[in-house]
Design goal:
The structure is a single chain. The protein contains 21 helices and ten strands. By secondary structure, it is α/β, with parallel strands linked by helices. Helix 6 packs antiparallel against helix 11 and helix 13 packs antiparallel against helix 15.
Length: about 600
Protein backbone atom coordinates (compact mmCIF):
# COMPACT_ATOMS: atom_id res chain seq x y z
CA UNK A 1 0.00 0.00 0.00
CA UNK A 2 2.80 2.45 0.91
CA UNK A 3 4.57 1.70 -2.35
CA UNK A 4 1.38 2.45 -4.29
CA UNK A 5 1.05 5.80 -2.48
CA UNK A 6 4.64 6.72 -3.32
CA UNK A 7 4.12 5.63 -6.93
CA UNK A 8 0.95 7.73 -7.16
CA UNK A 9 2.81 10.74 -5.68
CA UNK A 10 5.65 10.53 -8.21
CA UNK A 11 3.19 10.01 -11.07
CA UNK A 12 1.14 13.05 -10.07
CA UNK A 13 4.23 15.21 -9.69
CA UNK A 14 5.65 14.04 -13.02
CA UNK A 15 2.42 14.93 -14.83
CA UNK A 16 2.21 18.30 -13.07
CA UNK A 17 5.75 19.41 -13.94
CA UNK A 18 5.61 17.98 -17.45
CA UNK A 19 2.40 19.91 -18.05
CA UNK A 20 3.99 23.15 -16.82
CA UNK A 21 7.06 22.49 -18.95
CA UNK A 22 4.89 22.19 -22.08
CA UNK A 23 2.93 25.30 -21.08
CA UNK A 24 6.06 27.45 -20.66
CA UNK A 25 7.55 25.98 -23.82
CA UNK A 26 4.47 27.06 -25.83
CA UNK A 27 4.66 30.53 -24.31
CA UNK A 28 8.37 30.66 -25.10
CA UNK A 29 7.67 29.85 -28.76
CA UNK A 30 4.93 32.53 -28.89
CA UNK A 31 7.38 35.00 -27.39
CA UNK A 32 9.95 34.19 -30.08
CA UNK A 33 7.32 34.84 -32.76
CA UNK A 34 6.33 38.09 -31.05
CA UNK A 35 9.94 39.31 -31.09
CA UNK A 36 10.14 38.63 -34.80
CA UNK A 37 6.86 40.48 -35.44
CA UNK A 38 8.00 43.46 -33.38
CA UNK A 39 11.18 43.61 -35.42
CA UNK A 40 9.28 43.42 -38.74
CA UNK A 41 6.67 45.98 -37.67
CA UNK A 42 9.43 48.29 -36.45
CA UNK A 43 11.23 48.16 -39.81
CA UNK A 44 8.01 48.84 -41.73
CA UNK A 45 7.03 51.63 -39.35
CA UNK A 46 10.48 53.12 -39.45
CA UNK A 47 10.43 53.09 -43.28
CA UNK A 48 7.16 54.98 -43.51
CA UNK A 49 8.06 57.30 -40.66
CA UNK A 50 11.19 58.56 -42.42
CA UNK A 51 9.07 60.85 -44.53
CA UNK A 52 7.43 62.34 -41.44
CA UNK A 53 8.62 64.19 -38.35
CA UNK A 54 11.93 63.17 -36.76
CA UNK A 55 10.20 62.84 -33.38
CA UNK A 56 7.92 60.15 -34.77
CA UNK A 57 10.96 58.21 -36.00
CA UNK A 58 12.61 58.58 -32.62
CA UNK A 59 9.49 57.43 -30.73
CA UNK A 60 9.13 54.36 -32.97
CA UNK A 61 12.78 53.50 -32.48
CA UNK A 62 12.67 53.92 -28.67
CA UNK A 63 9.36 52.05 -28.35
CA UNK A 64 10.69 49.17 -30.46
CA UNK A 65 13.83 48.87 -28.37
CA UNK A 66 11.86 48.90 -25.09
CA UNK A 67 9.32 46.30 -26.25
CA UNK A 68 12.06 44.10 -27.71
CA UNK A 69 14.13 44.23 -24.51
CA UNK A 70 11.06 43.38 -22.40
CA UNK A 71 10.35 40.39 -24.64
CA UNK A 72 13.99 39.26 -24.43
CA UNK A 73 13.90 39.44 -20.63
CA UNK A 74 10.62 37.56 -20.57
CA UNK A 75 12.07 34.97 -22.93
CA UNK A 76 15.01 34.36 -20.59
CA UNK A 77 12.59 33.86 -17.68
CA UNK A 78 10.49 31.44 -19.73
CA UNK A 79 13.60 29.49 -20.70
CA UNK A 80 14.52 29.14 -17.02
CA UNK A 81 11.02 27.92 -16.18
CA UNK A 82 11.10 25.36 -18.99
CA UNK A 83 14.43 24.01 -17.70
CA UNK A 84 13.22 24.04 -14.09
CA UNK A 85 10.09 22.01 -14.72
CA UNK A 86 11.91 19.72 -17.14
CA UNK A 87 14.39 18.77 -14.41
CA UNK A 88 11.63 18.27 -11.83
CA UNK A 89 9.68 16.08 -14.25
CA UNK A 90 12.82 14.01 -14.95
CA UNK A 91 13.57 13.60 -11.24
CA UNK A 92 10.07 12.27 -10.58
CA UNK A 93 10.23 10.01 -13.63
CA UNK A 94 13.58 8.57 -12.50
CA UNK A 95 12.21 7.86 -9.01
CA UNK A 96 9.07 6.34 -10.48
CA UNK A 97 11.26 4.03 -12.57
CA UNK A 98 13.37 3.20 -9.52
CA UNK A 99 10.26 2.12 -7.65
CA UNK A 100 9.69 -0.40 -10.43
CA UNK A 101 13.27 -1.67 -10.47
CA UNK A 102 14.72 0.49 -13.28
CA UNK A 103 17.83 2.29 -12.01
CA UNK A 104 19.38 2.94 -15.43
CA UNK A 105 19.55 6.72 -14.85
CA UNK A 106 21.51 6.38 -11.61
CA UNK A 107 25.32 6.49 -11.62
CA UNK A 108 26.80 3.10 -10.70
CA UNK A 109 29.94 4.32 -8.90
CA UNK A 110 32.16 2.14 -11.07
CA UNK A 111 35.21 4.17 -10.04
CA UNK A 112 34.81 3.02 -6.43
CA UNK A 113 35.16 -0.70 -7.20
CA UNK A 114 38.14 -2.01 -5.25
CA UNK A 115 38.99 -5.72 -5.14
CA UNK A 116 41.16 -5.15 -2.07
CA UNK A 117 38.40 -3.55 0.01
CA UNK A 118 37.25 -5.40 3.11
CA UNK A 119 33.84 -6.25 1.65
CA UNK A 120 32.51 -3.87 -1.02
CA UNK A 121 33.77 -5.86 -4.02
CA UNK A 122 32.38 -9.16 -2.73
CA UNK A 123 28.99 -7.63 -1.89
CA UNK A 124 28.47 -5.85 -5.26
CA UNK A 125 28.33 -2.47 -3.55
CA UNK A 126 29.66 -0.60 -6.62
CA UNK A 127 29.51 -1.06 -10.38
CA UNK A 128 26.92 -2.37 -12.82
CA UNK A 129 23.91 -4.06 -11.19
CA UNK A 130 25.23 -2.92 -7.79
CA UNK A 131 23.64 -1.62 -4.64
CA UNK A 132 25.11 1.86 -5.22
CA UNK A 133 23.29 1.99 -8.56
CA UNK A 134 19.96 1.67 -6.69
CA UNK A 135 20.54 4.56 -4.28
CA UNK A 136 22.86 7.09 -5.91
CA UNK A 137 20.94 10.23 -6.90
CA UNK A 138 23.75 12.61 -6.00
CA UNK A 139 24.28 15.72 -8.12
CA UNK A 140 27.72 16.80 -6.90
CA UNK A 141 31.12 15.05 -7.18
CA UNK A 142 31.70 15.56 -3.46
CA UNK A 143 28.23 14.23 -2.60
CA UNK A 144 28.87 11.12 -4.67
CA UNK A 145 32.19 10.48 -2.91
CA UNK A 146 30.58 11.02 0.47
CA UNK A 147 27.74 8.61 -0.31
CA UNK A 148 30.26 6.00 -1.48
CA UNK A 149 32.16 6.52 1.78
CA UNK A 150 29.10 5.49 3.76
CA UNK A 151 29.46 1.98 2.32
CA UNK A 152 33.26 1.77 2.31
CA UNK A 153 33.63 2.93 5.91
CA UNK A 154 30.29 2.27 7.66
CA UNK A 155 29.55 3.88 10.98
CA UNK A 156 30.43 1.79 14.06
CA UNK A 157 28.96 3.98 16.80
CA UNK A 158 25.26 3.40 17.30
CA UNK A 159 24.62 7.03 18.27
CA UNK A 160 26.04 8.23 14.94
CA UNK A 161 23.88 5.68 13.11
CA UNK A 162 20.80 6.86 14.99
CA UNK A 163 21.46 10.50 14.07
CA UNK A 164 21.85 9.64 10.40
CA UNK A 165 18.68 7.52 10.49
CA UNK A 166 16.77 10.51 11.87
CA UNK A 167 18.14 12.80 9.17
CA UNK A 168 17.40 10.40 6.32
CA UNK A 169 13.90 9.59 7.50
CA UNK A 170 13.15 13.31 7.80
CA UNK A 171 14.39 13.90 4.27
CA UNK A 172 12.34 10.92 3.16
CA UNK A 173 9.19 12.90 4.03
CA UNK A 174 10.34 16.09 2.25
CA UNK A 175 9.79 15.07 -1.37
CA UNK A 176 9.27 18.58 -2.72
CA UNK A 177 12.30 19.98 -0.92
CA UNK A 178 14.58 17.15 -2.04
CA UNK A 179 13.55 17.55 -5.64
CA UNK A 180 14.06 21.33 -5.56
CA UNK A 181 17.59 20.83 -4.21
CA UNK A 182 18.34 18.29 -6.94
CA UNK A 183 16.86 20.49 -9.68
CA UNK A 184 18.95 23.52 -8.66
CA UNK A 185 22.08 21.37 -8.45
CA UNK A 186 21.44 19.74 -11.85
CA UNK A 187 20.74 23.04 -13.61
CA UNK A 188 23.93 24.57 -12.18
CA UNK A 189 25.84 21.29 -12.20
CA UNK A 190 29.25 21.23 -10.55
CA UNK A 191 31.67 18.92 -12.34
CA UNK A 192 35.09 17.83 -11.10
CA UNK A 193 36.89 20.73 -12.78
CA UNK A 194 34.47 23.27 -11.29
CA UNK A 195 34.76 21.68 -7.87
CA UNK A 196 38.56 21.87 -7.97
CA UNK A 197 38.44 25.49 -9.12
CA UNK A 198 35.99 26.35 -6.36
CA UNK A 199 37.95 24.58 -3.64
CA UNK A 200 41.14 26.36 -4.70
CA UNK A 201 39.53 29.67 -3.76
CA UNK A 202 40.46 28.98 -0.16
CA UNK A 203 44.13 28.66 -1.18
CA UNK A 204 44.35 31.42 -3.82
CA UNK A 205 45.95 34.21 -1.82
CA UNK A 206 47.05 36.75 -4.47
CA UNK A 207 49.61 38.47 -2.25
CA UNK A 208 48.89 42.07 -3.32
CA UNK A 209 50.90 44.68 -1.33
CA UNK A 210 48.80 46.26 1.39
CA UNK A 211 49.71 49.79 0.30
CA UNK A 212 48.40 49.11 -3.22
CA UNK A 213 44.92 48.10 -2.02
CA UNK A 214 44.79 50.54 0.91
CA UNK A 215 41.64 52.66 1.15
CA UNK A 216 43.69 55.83 0.67
CA UNK A 217 44.86 54.59 -2.74
CA UNK A 218 41.67 52.96 -4.01
CA UNK A 219 39.39 55.79 -2.90
CA UNK A 220 41.68 58.80 -2.58
CA UNK A 221 43.22 58.69 -6.07
CA UNK A 222 39.86 58.34 -7.93
CA UNK A 223 38.33 61.15 -5.85
CA UNK A 224 41.28 63.44 -6.65
CA UNK A 225 41.11 62.45 -10.33
CA UNK A 226 37.40 63.30 -10.61
CA UNK A 227 37.92 66.50 -8.59
CA UNK A 228 40.69 67.69 -10.95
CA UNK A 229 38.50 66.91 -13.99
CA UNK A 230 35.68 69.02 -12.51
CA UNK A 231 38.00 71.87 -11.56
CA UNK A 232 39.70 71.78 -14.97
CA UNK A 233 36.34 71.85 -16.79
CA UNK A 234 35.48 74.94 -14.74
CA UNK A 235 38.88 76.35 -15.75
CA UNK A 236 40.08 76.67 -12.15
CA UNK A 237 43.17 74.55 -12.85
CA UNK A 238 45.12 73.67 -16.00
CA UNK A 239 44.05 70.57 -18.01
CA UNK A 240 47.40 68.97 -17.25
CA UNK A 241 46.33 68.07 -13.69
CA UNK A 242 43.51 65.63 -14.61
CA UNK A 243 45.75 64.14 -17.29
CA UNK A 244 48.44 63.63 -14.66
CA UNK A 245 46.02 61.87 -12.31
CA UNK A 246 44.67 59.64 -15.11
CA UNK A 247 48.22 58.63 -15.93
CA UNK A 248 48.82 57.97 -12.22
CA UNK A 249 45.78 55.68 -12.15
CA UNK A 250 47.05 53.72 -15.15
CA UNK A 251 50.45 53.45 -13.50
CA UNK A 252 48.86 51.95 -10.39
CA UNK A 253 46.73 49.64 -12.56
CA UNK A 254 49.91 48.49 -14.27
CA UNK A 255 51.55 47.74 -10.92
CA UNK A 256 48.47 45.70 -9.91
CA UNK A 257 48.31 43.80 -13.20
CA UNK A 258 49.87 40.52 -12.01
CA UNK A 259 47.65 40.47 -8.92
CA UNK A 260 44.60 41.21 -11.05
CA UNK A 261 45.43 38.28 -13.31
CA UNK A 262 45.93 35.96 -10.32
CA UNK A 263 42.57 36.93 -8.83
CA UNK A 264 40.83 36.64 -12.18
CA UNK A 265 42.34 33.17 -12.72
CA UNK A 266 41.32 32.07 -9.22
CA UNK A 267 37.72 33.11 -9.82
CA UNK A 268 37.75 31.60 -13.31
CA UNK A 269 34.32 30.42 -14.48
CA UNK A 270 32.80 30.22 -11.03
CA UNK A 271 29.91 32.67 -11.53
CA UNK A 272 27.47 30.00 -12.73
CA UNK A 273 28.63 27.72 -9.92
CA UNK A 274 28.02 30.55 -7.43
CA UNK A 275 24.43 30.87 -8.56
CA UNK A 276 23.92 27.17 -7.96
CA UNK A 277 25.57 27.19 -4.51
CA UNK A 278 23.58 30.28 -3.52
CA UNK A 279 20.30 28.57 -4.42
CA UNK A 280 21.22 25.40 -2.49
CA UNK A 281 22.35 27.32 0.60
CA UNK A 282 19.17 29.40 0.58
CA UNK A 283 17.05 26.24 0.38
CA UNK A 284 18.80 24.79 3.42
CA UNK A 285 18.58 28.08 5.34
CA UNK A 286 14.83 28.57 4.99
CA UNK A 287 13.81 24.98 5.77
CA UNK A 288 12.89 24.19 9.40
CA UNK A 289 14.84 21.07 10.39
CA UNK A 290 14.06 18.65 13.21
CA UNK A 291 16.92 16.11 13.18
CA UNK A 292 20.27 16.93 14.76
CA UNK A 293 22.35 16.12 11.68
CA UNK A 294 20.34 18.38 9.37
CA UNK A 295 20.35 21.19 11.91
CA UNK A 296 24.13 20.84 12.07
CA UNK A 297 24.43 21.21 8.29
CA UNK A 298 22.38 24.41 8.43
CA UNK A 299 24.47 25.65 11.36
CA UNK A 300 27.73 24.92 9.49
CA UNK A 301 26.54 27.19 6.68
CA UNK A 302 26.05 30.05 9.13
CA UNK A 303 29.40 29.97 10.91
CA UNK A 304 32.12 32.55 10.47
CA UNK A 305 32.26 36.33 10.25
CA UNK A 306 29.43 36.21 7.73
CA UNK A 307 27.08 33.41 6.68
CA UNK A 308 27.69 31.22 3.66
CA UNK A 309 24.79 32.88 1.83
CA UNK A 310 26.14 36.37 2.51
CA UNK A 311 29.65 35.38 1.52
CA UNK A 312 28.59 33.65 -1.71
CA UNK A 313 26.40 36.64 -2.62
CA UNK A 314 29.33 38.96 -1.97
CA UNK A 315 31.66 36.79 -4.05
CA UNK A 316 29.16 36.71 -6.92
CA UNK A 317 29.29 40.52 -6.95
CA UNK A 318 33.10 40.45 -7.03
CA UNK A 319 33.05 38.03 -9.96
CA UNK A 320 30.64 40.35 -11.79
CA UNK A 321 32.97 43.30 -11.24
CA UNK A 322 35.85 41.33 -12.77
CA UNK A 323 33.66 40.51 -15.76
CA UNK A 324 33.11 44.21 -16.51
CA UNK A 325 36.84 44.37 -17.28
CA UNK A 326 36.24 42.15 -20.31
CA UNK A 327 34.54 45.06 -22.07
CA UNK A 328 37.38 47.12 -23.54
CA UNK A 329 35.56 50.47 -23.48
CA UNK A 330 34.28 49.97 -19.94
CA UNK A 331 37.76 48.89 -18.78
CA UNK A 332 39.36 52.04 -20.25
CA UNK A 333 36.84 54.41 -18.66
CA UNK A 334 36.63 52.58 -15.31
CA UNK A 335 40.40 52.32 -14.88
CA UNK A 336 40.91 55.93 -15.91
CA UNK A 337 38.43 57.24 -13.35
CA UNK A 338 37.94 54.65 -10.61
CA UNK A 339 41.05 52.42 -10.46
CA UNK A 340 38.67 49.59 -11.34
CA UNK A 341 41.26 46.79 -11.40
CA UNK A 342 42.55 47.77 -7.99
CA UNK A 343 38.97 48.00 -6.66
CA UNK A 344 38.42 44.40 -7.89
CA UNK A 345 41.68 43.13 -6.42
CA UNK A 346 41.00 44.87 -3.10
CA UNK A 347 37.48 43.42 -2.82
CA UNK A 348 38.69 39.92 -3.63
CA UNK A 349 41.64 40.19 -1.24
CA UNK A 350 39.40 41.32 1.62
CA UNK A 351 36.88 38.57 0.90
CA UNK A 352 39.63 35.98 0.80
CA UNK A 353 41.13 37.15 4.11
CA UNK A 354 37.80 37.28 5.93
CA UNK A 355 35.87 34.19 4.80
CA UNK A 356 37.75 31.98 2.34
CA UNK A 357 38.84 29.55 5.07
CA UNK A 358 35.21 28.49 5.43
CA UNK A 359 34.70 27.66 1.74
CA UNK A 360 35.71 24.00 2.04
CA UNK A 361 33.54 23.57 5.14
CA UNK A 362 30.56 25.04 3.30
CA UNK A 363 31.15 22.82 0.29
CA UNK A 364 31.43 19.81 2.60
CA UNK A 365 28.10 20.74 4.18
CA UNK A 366 26.45 20.88 0.73
CA UNK A 367 28.07 17.56 -0.22
CA UNK A 368 26.74 16.00 2.99
CA UNK A 369 23.24 17.21 2.18
CA UNK A 370 23.59 15.89 -1.36
CA UNK A 371 24.48 12.42 -0.06
CA UNK A 372 21.70 12.51 2.52
CA UNK A 373 19.13 13.35 -0.14
CA UNK A 374 19.96 10.05 -1.85
CA UNK A 375 19.52 8.32 1.50
CA UNK A 376 16.22 10.10 2.13
CA UNK A 377 14.93 9.06 -1.29
CA UNK A 378 15.94 5.45 -0.52
CA UNK A 379 13.84 5.53 2.65
CA UNK A 380 10.86 6.86 0.70
CA UNK A 381 11.30 4.48 -2.24
CA UNK A 382 11.48 1.36 -0.06
CA UNK A 383 8.47 1.54 2.24
CA UNK A 384 8.51 -2.25 2.68
CA UNK A 385 11.95 -2.18 4.29
CA UNK A 386 12.32 -1.74 8.05
CA UNK A 387 14.24 0.55 10.38
CA UNK A 388 17.24 -1.21 12.01
CA UNK A 389 17.32 -1.14 15.81
CA UNK A 390 20.12 -1.60 18.33
CA UNK A 391 20.53 -4.92 20.14
CA UNK A 392 23.16 -5.25 22.88
CA UNK A 393 22.52 -8.98 23.30
CA UNK A 394 22.65 -10.25 19.71
CA UNK A 395 24.99 -9.62 16.80
CA UNK A 396 21.98 -9.91 14.53
CA UNK A 397 18.34 -10.85 14.88
CA UNK A 398 16.25 -10.52 11.72
CA UNK A 399 12.82 -11.62 10.58
CA UNK A 400 12.06 -12.18 6.90
CA UNK A 401 15.53 -11.07 5.82
CA UNK A 402 15.96 -10.74 2.03
CA UNK A 403 18.45 -9.48 -0.54
CA UNK A 404 17.73 -5.79 -1.37
CA UNK A 405 18.84 -6.16 -5.01
CA UNK A 406 16.33 -8.90 -5.78
CA UNK A 407 12.84 -7.87 -6.86
CA UNK A 408 10.06 -8.65 -4.43
CA UNK A 409 8.58 -11.37 -6.66
CA UNK A 410 11.94 -13.20 -6.83
CA UNK A 411 13.12 -12.57 -3.28
CA UNK A 412 13.13 -15.48 -0.81
CA UNK A 413 13.31 -14.38 2.83
CA UNK A 414 14.67 -16.12 5.91
CA UNK A 415 14.60 -15.52 9.64
CA UNK A 416 18.13 -15.35 10.98
CA UNK A 417 19.71 -14.94 14.42
CA UNK A 418 23.40 -14.62 15.18
CA UNK A 419 24.72 -14.37 18.76
CA UNK A 420 27.33 -12.00 20.16
CA UNK A 421 30.80 -13.23 21.05
CA UNK A 422 33.05 -15.75 19.34
CA UNK A 423 30.73 -17.81 17.19
CA UNK A 424 30.49 -19.17 13.64
CA UNK A 425 27.73 -20.57 11.48
CA UNK A 426 28.85 -23.27 9.04
CA UNK A 427 26.48 -23.25 6.06
CA UNK A 428 26.52 -26.21 3.70
CA UNK A 429 24.48 -26.84 0.57
CA UNK A 430 24.49 -28.06 -3.00
CA UNK A 431 25.52 -25.97 -6.00
CA UNK A 432 23.19 -23.02 -6.67
CA UNK A 433 21.26 -23.74 -3.46
CA UNK A 434 21.62 -20.12 -2.27
CA UNK A 435 24.63 -20.11 0.07
CA UNK A 436 26.52 -17.21 -1.52
CA UNK A 437 23.37 -15.14 -1.98
CA UNK A 438 22.53 -15.64 1.69
CA UNK A 439 26.00 -14.48 2.76
CA UNK A 440 25.54 -11.33 0.71
CA UNK A 441 22.02 -10.88 2.07
CA UNK A 442 23.21 -10.86 5.67
CA UNK A 443 26.29 -8.68 5.18
CA UNK A 444 24.85 -6.17 2.72
CA UNK A 445 21.90 -5.52 5.01
CA UNK A 446 24.33 -4.99 7.91
CA UNK A 447 26.29 -2.47 5.81
CA UNK A 448 23.05 -0.69 4.91
CA UNK A 449 22.03 -0.59 8.57
CA UNK A 450 25.37 0.96 9.58
CA UNK A 451 24.92 3.54 6.81
CA UNK A 452 21.65 4.68 8.42
CA UNK A 453 19.43 3.12 5.73
CA UNK A 454 16.37 0.88 5.98
CA UNK A 455 17.05 -2.82 5.45
CA UNK A 456 15.29 -5.56 3.52
CA UNK A 457 13.59 -7.29 6.45
CA UNK A 458 10.42 -7.24 8.52
CA UNK A 459 12.44 -6.60 11.72
CA UNK A 460 16.17 -6.11 12.13
CA UNK A 461 18.11 -5.73 15.37
CA UNK A 462 21.91 -5.74 15.38
CA UNK A 463 25.17 -4.58 16.91
CA UNK A 464 27.46 -2.55 14.58
CA UNK A 465 30.65 -4.41 13.71
CA UNK A 466 33.48 -4.25 11.16
CA UNK A 467 32.82 -6.61 8.25
CA UNK A 468 35.41 -8.60 6.32
CA UNK A 469 34.60 -10.95 3.46
CA UNK A 470 36.52 -13.43 1.31
CA UNK A 471 34.23 -14.52 -1.49
CA UNK A 472 35.69 -13.47 -4.85
CA UNK A 473 39.43 -13.84 -4.59
CA UNK A 474 41.19 -13.61 -7.97
CA UNK A 475 44.70 -14.38 -9.14
CA UNK A 476 46.99 -11.77 -10.65
CA UNK A 477 49.35 -12.37 -13.55
CA UNK A 478 50.82 -8.88 -13.22
CA UNK A 479 51.77 -9.61 -9.60
CA UNK A 480 52.86 -13.19 -10.42
CA UNK A 481 50.34 -14.31 -7.81
CA UNK A 482 48.37 -17.59 -7.91
CA UNK A 483 44.74 -17.88 -6.93
CA UNK A 484 45.63 -19.87 -3.81
CA UNK A 485 48.27 -17.36 -2.70
CA UNK A 486 45.85 -14.47 -3.29
CA UNK A 487 43.30 -16.21 -1.06
CA UNK A 488 45.87 -16.81 1.67
CA UNK A 489 46.90 -13.17 1.51
CA UNK A 490 43.24 -12.16 1.91
CA UNK A 491 42.83 -14.41 4.96
CA UNK A 492 46.09 -13.11 6.42
CA UNK A 493 44.78 -9.55 6.17
CA UNK A 494 41.72 -10.50 8.21
CA UNK A 495 43.76 -12.55 10.68
CA UNK A 496 46.19 -9.68 11.31
CA UNK A 497 43.33 -7.36 12.15
CA UNK A 498 41.76 -9.95 14.46
CA UNK A 499 45.06 -10.56 16.31
CA UNK A 500 45.38 -6.81 16.90
CA UNK A 501 42.13 -6.94 18.86
CA UNK A 502 39.66 -5.69 16.26
CA UNK A 503 36.33 -7.48 16.33
CA UNK A 504 35.34 -8.61 12.83
CA UNK A 505 32.26 -10.22 11.39
CA UNK A 506 34.05 -12.62 9.05
CA UNK A 507 32.23 -13.96 5.98
CA UNK A 508 33.99 -16.72 4.06
CA UNK A 509 32.70 -18.46 0.95
CA UNK A 510 34.48 -21.72 0.08
CA UNK A 511 37.83 -20.85 1.63
CA UNK A 512 40.99 -22.49 0.28
CA UNK A 513 39.36 -23.23 -3.06
CA UNK A 514 42.77 -23.23 -4.72
CA UNK A 515 43.99 -26.52 -3.26
CA UNK A 516 42.89 -30.20 -3.19
CA UNK A 517 39.90 -31.37 -1.18
CA UNK A 518 41.79 -33.01 1.70
CA UNK A 519 44.23 -30.12 2.05
CA UNK A 520 41.34 -27.70 1.89
CA UNK A 521 39.39 -29.51 4.62
CA UNK A 522 42.33 -29.74 7.03
CA UNK A 523 43.42 -26.15 6.41
CA UNK A 524 39.88 -24.81 6.84
CA UNK A 525 39.32 -26.70 10.10
CA UNK A 526 42.67 -25.60 11.52
CA UNK A 527 42.08 -21.95 10.59
CA UNK A 528 38.54 -21.85 12.02
CA UNK A 529 39.61 -23.68 15.18
CA UNK A 530 42.40 -21.17 15.70
CA UNK A 531 39.89 -18.29 15.52
CA UNK A 532 38.28 -19.62 18.72
CA UNK A 533 40.92 -17.70 20.67
CA UNK A 534 39.76 -14.29 19.45
CA UNK A 535 36.78 -11.97 19.62
CA UNK A 536 35.44 -12.76 16.16
CA UNK A 537 32.25 -14.11 14.65
CA UNK A 538 31.00 -14.89 11.19
CA UNK A 539 29.56 -17.20 8.57
CA UNK A 540 31.38 -19.84 6.53
CA UNK A 541 29.74 -21.29 3.42
CA UNK A 542 31.12 -24.54 2.05
CA UNK A 543 30.40 -27.63 -0.02
CA UNK A 544 32.56 -29.65 2.35
CA UNK A 545 30.08 -31.29 4.72
CA UNK A 546 32.93 -32.57 6.89
CA UNK A 547 33.41 -29.03 8.23
CA UNK A 548 30.14 -29.63 10.03
CA UNK A 549 32.09 -31.79 12.47
CA UNK A 550 33.33 -28.59 14.11
CA UNK A 551 29.89 -28.09 15.64
CA UNK A 552 30.18 -31.52 17.28
CA UNK A 553 33.67 -30.81 18.64
CA UNK A 554 33.04 -27.19 19.71
CA UNK A 555 29.26 -26.66 20.06
CA UNK A 556 29.86 -23.48 22.05
CA UNK A 557 31.55 -21.88 19.01
CA UNK A 558 30.15 -23.53 15.86
CA UNK A 559 26.65 -24.27 14.64
CA UNK A 560 25.49 -25.90 11.39
CA UNK A 561 22.94 -24.57 8.92
CA UNK A 562 22.21 -25.63 5.37
CA UNK A 563 20.24 -25.04 2.19
CA UNK A 564 18.62 -28.25 1.00
CA UNK A 565 17.40 -29.14 -2.49
CA UNK A 566 14.78 -31.58 -3.67
CA UNK A 567 15.69 -33.93 -6.51
CA UNK A 568 12.81 -35.54 -8.36
CA UNK A 569 14.07 -37.71 -11.20
CA UNK A 570 15.99 -35.36 -13.48
CA UNK A 571 14.62 -32.20 -11.85
CA UNK A 572 16.26 -30.15 -9.11
CA UNK A 573 14.07 -27.89 -7.00
CA UNK A 574 15.46 -25.08 -4.85
CA UNK A 575 13.52 -23.43 -2.04
CA UNK A 576 16.40 -21.22 -0.77
CA UNK A 577 15.19 -21.62 2.82
CA UNK A 578 17.77 -21.79 5.60
CA UNK A 579 17.54 -24.92 7.78
CA UNK A 580 19.49 -26.20 10.80
CA UNK A 581 21.97 -29.01 10.31
CA UNK A 582 24.30 -30.27 7.56
CA UNK A 583 23.04 -30.72 3.98
CA UNK A 584 22.24 -34.26 2.89
CA UNK A 585 21.97 -33.70 -0.87
CA UNK A 586 24.37 -32.74 -3.65
CA UNK A 587 23.64 -32.06 -7.31
CA UNK A 588 26.92 -31.66 -9.22
CA UNK A 589 26.60 -34.85 -11.30
CA UNK A 590 22.94 -34.23 -12.11
CA UNK A 591 23.66 -30.66 -13.25
CA UNK A 592 26.56 -31.86 -15.39
CA UNK A 593 24.25 -34.42 -17.03
CA UNK A 594 21.67 -31.71 -17.73
CA UNK A 595 24.39 -29.61 -19.37
CA UNK A 596 25.45 -32.59 -21.50
CA UNK A 597 28.92 -32.72 -19.94
CA UNK A 598 28.60 -36.34 -18.80
CA UNK A 599 26.31 -39.21 -19.76
Amino acid sequence: MEKQKTEALYTERFKHHNSLRRKYKRTYNINATARLLVFVVAIVGFYFALSTNVWIVTCILVATIIVFLVLVQYSARLERMVRWHKELALINEENLNALNGDFSEFDTGEEFKDMSHSFSYDLDVFGQESFFATINQTTRPGGKRMLAGWFMQPLQAWEAIRKRQQALTELGTKTEWRHQFMAHARINRMDDASENLFNRLSESEIGAPKWLIHDFIRWGVPVLTILTIVLSSLQFIPVGYPILFVLLQWGLVGLAMKYTKKADAALGRTEKIMLGQKALIKLIDIEPWESEALKQISQNLNEGKETALQSITRLAGIIKSFEYRNNFVVAIIANSLFLWDIQCVSRYSRWHTEVSLHIKDWMRALDTMDAMISGGAYWQNNPGFCKPLADAQQQLQAKELGHPLLSEDKRVVNDYDFPRGTFFHIITGANMAGKSTFLRTVTLNMVMAMAGLPVCAKTFRFTPVAIFTSMRTTDSLSKDESYFYAELRRLREAYDRIRKGERLFLVLDEILKGTNSEDKRKGSMDFLTQLKRYDVGGIVATHDTQLGALADQYPETFENYCFEIEITGEEVNFDYKLQPGVTQTMNAQLLMKQMGLIE
